[in-house]
Amino acid sequence: MSTTDTTQEIQVVARTHVVVLGAGYAGAMAANRLRRNPAVAVTVVNPQPFFVQRIRLHQFVSGTGDPLVGFDDVLADDIRVVVDTATRIDAGARRVHLASGAHLDYDHLIYAIGTRHRTPEIPGAEHALFIADWASAQRIRERVEGLGAHEMITVVGGGLTGIEVAAELAERGHDVRLVGGRGIASSVGERARSATEKQLIRLGVDVVDTGRVVEIGERTVTVDIDGERNVLPSAATILATGFEAPELAADSGLATDEIGRLRTDATLAGIDDDRIVGAGDAVAVEGMPLRMSCQAAEPLGAQAAEAVLARIAGEQPNPVDQGFVAQCASIGRRAATLQFTRRDDSPARAVVTGRLAAWTKELVCRGTVWNIRHEATHPGAFRWFRGGDLTTTTEPALR
Ligand SMILES: Cc1cc2nc3c(=O)[nH]c(=O)nc-3n(C[C@H](O)[C@H](O)[C@H](O)COP(=O)(O)OP(=O)(O)OC[C@H]3O[C@@H](n4cnc5c(N)ncnc54)[C@H](O)[C@@H]3O)c2cc1C
């Protein structure tokens, strides 16, 4: 892995050049897998000079875990890393413009820039913090560290991300309220849902199951509970209410869905241009709704690389083939909920809770990094659960 100073004009390499935008779970996996073909030169563009384990950001905000991993630990030696942000893709010229003013020319591009928070239409949302990416997590940590004893933190959003944040903070001794909106853990089955809620309450979280936040103040939050407006103290309000993709694809004139994700066909090729291949949370694969997750992102990254390698070889890429195995949320460090799923992510019968689930979740977190690291030294080794046709799936669960 080598890092390039972007104040210089970036040299274009003579071999087939693949640029990977974003070095998260999908992009890092894709970059390593591309090395199955030694004739391919790989450049990765990422704003941070390290790999951020997004699935540990709730640990970072509460001080229970470090989400950062050096690129030298997860990317293959001959991958060039450019620490910069892509600002526009000129598909016609096959060129990516970067925030530093430099540009990169490519033969093929992998678009894997993930997602960020989506600001809901709640009056006063400018007072809120968001849990989505490295920058937003740093802001939460700063605020949380400045809170006095027993100052209330409100986490909004009863999906798996909101649950993980609320639990982690409560276990560290903070006063936490979790406002469910659409309910707590509505994506898992009833047994898993009720175990999750019980564990949250055990940790001291004030669970407002179906309450809906209707206004956010500097130090208050207004919650509608059964039609009644309740103004409650909230020294920090953290929204975990959903993600959207950055504007890059839309600003570059590429086809996107309603939350800004690059639209691709079933082989991950961009609808407008098959030299641009998408992977991870930042893409909407035609007819295949996938829950935003590293569980989906790593297989997508591997398949994006395979699609590019197939095109370089003059072959037709295969359609995406993957499925889900489980939904898993940590509930502090000592418990978790592991809901096994059918391949379309709908809940199956098996549920594991408590310490065994917490231990499994920790193994999963380590495993996601191990997968990428192993792919760096053994390109092509990563295997995933192939789910077959998921086109009957309707609505993906909210993370
Ligand atoms: C608190 C939390 C807990 C989670 N827990 C789980 C879990 O337990 N299990 C699970 O499956 N999923 C979990 N998720 C979701 C999971 O983190 C994402 O689905 C996953 O990170 C998606 O991977 P990705 O590679 O598509 O995007 P990311 O991991 O977000 O990587 C995208 C990369 O692109 C970079 N980038 C952004 N814009 C640009 C640009 N313009 N130019 C270049 N680079 C750019 C970003 O900085 C980032 O490094 C969690 C998310 C959060 C926030």
TrEMBL record:
A Pfam family that the UniProt record links to this protein: Pyr_redox_2
Keyword terms: FAD, Flavoprotein, Oxidoreductase
A GO biological process held by the record: aerobic electron transport chain
Residue ranges constituting the FAD/NAD(P)-binding domain according to the UniProt record: 17-295
Cofactor(s) the protein requires to work: FAD
GO MF annotation, one: NAD(P)H dehydrogenase (quinone) activity
Annotated TM spans: none
Similarity comment text for this entry: Belongs to the NADH dehydrogenase family.
PANTHER family for this protein: 64 KDA MITOCHONDRIAL NADH DEHYDROGENASE (EUROFUNG), APOPTOSIS-INDUCING FACTOR 1
Protein name as annotated: FAD-dependent oxidoreductase
Organism of this sequence: Gordonia amicalis
